[in-house]
Protein: SGNH hydrolase
Organism: Hyaloscypha variabilis
Amino acid sequence: MYEAVGSMPVLRKRLGASIVLTLLSIISIFLLLPSSKVSTRLQKIALGTAIDGSLWQWSANLEETEEDLGGEGTRLVIFGDSWVDDIHEGGQEGKGKSWADYLCEEINCTSRLNFAASQPIEALPQYPPTGVMTSNSIHESLISKSKYAIPLEIAELSLLPDLATQIQSYIALKPPKERPTETIFVVSFGFWDIYDFSRMDYPIGQNGTDTSIQELFRQLDILYNHFVTNLYSPSSSESAEATDDSENSEAPMFRVIIPRLFDPTLLPGWLTLRPHAPAPSSVAEQQKNAVYFTERWNNIMENQVAQWVVTTPEPPPPKFEQDESHEEDIRNNYERSQPTEPRLPIQKDVFYYDLPKLLLDVIVEHQLEDEGLSDAHGLGKGESPFESVYQPCVRAADGDDTDGLIDLNGMLVCKEPEEYLFWDAFNLGAVAKGMIGKEVGELVKANKTLRAKWGH
């Protein structure tokens, strides 16, 4: 009894010391994070303003988002991962713009909103490479079932804003001051889903692939309903300026750009930065899974997007013009309350871009050129724009020739970024992104959508 009483002051001291150390840790995180767009979000998290407490919790902030002025012209709204994210942190000047930014230039868009996100560069190498998933909840559910997965409490730290979070952030913004003539959405998801699913048990990874695609289209429906209800609804048409003649203007369309998925095993980081496969899994098994899941994703996506485009949503109920006078019984007003002409539903359409074809052609062209060969399609007869299609510009130090190279979080940045197909282990360089943006821009300008292809 006396020992217990005597130990109470010691316990109080230990508890007090633990609280002080915790507070010092939080303050240290806040002070050590560098100044950047992502780091600002991380600093908010360190002060306890995150919703769920995860380290990389992303939050759209009106101060961090371009003002949505709307007005005449084309507005580009971007959702996705590091392949369309436009954040540049210190030392990343050679990274270049995202391909969506190059697309914006190509089609002369008048405004742009980007909700994509990336893993902060300062997270490596403490945390394994990761990126934006289609659905964080699907990701959490599956890793808890897989015997090959890292513990849930560790994986939770790597969560970035999924598609639902990005769309809700967009919907929560104030509507544009003037309704845009046209709004085009970019949806770039799937790469990091496949990268992560490939390390799981095969049935679990396959289920995750299928479920993620279903979730993607569910979120597209939410985005579509917001589009037709709040941006291009009949009520918004009536409230537009008098100069907007709705009878003479073309009906708006809900148009989305969706790129096909590139195989993550073909990126430099698959071999250099991917964590070792725990037994009984293996590198070969994970690579086989990734190749299969990528093909499965693209095949299902191609079939589903075709069905989704032609799915006719339920038309809105007809509006009745009620007499504002309440002196007469409403039954006497029936003849004067005529239904307005039902408005045809806004059509959906998709630019389905074959991104892997462009990148594979570049890689094969380079390989054939090195060997002095060519194929029946003419590849190998041109001139590769890249010095390397294997190594990224940002890579681990190799040898003693490091003069003039920038140290980026323990990695070295090459002197000529434009000579590399890849910027870093998992992302394309500026030249390749410019090529993609140009090709997608040509699709948009020529209106080469699925409906146009079908003749609808």
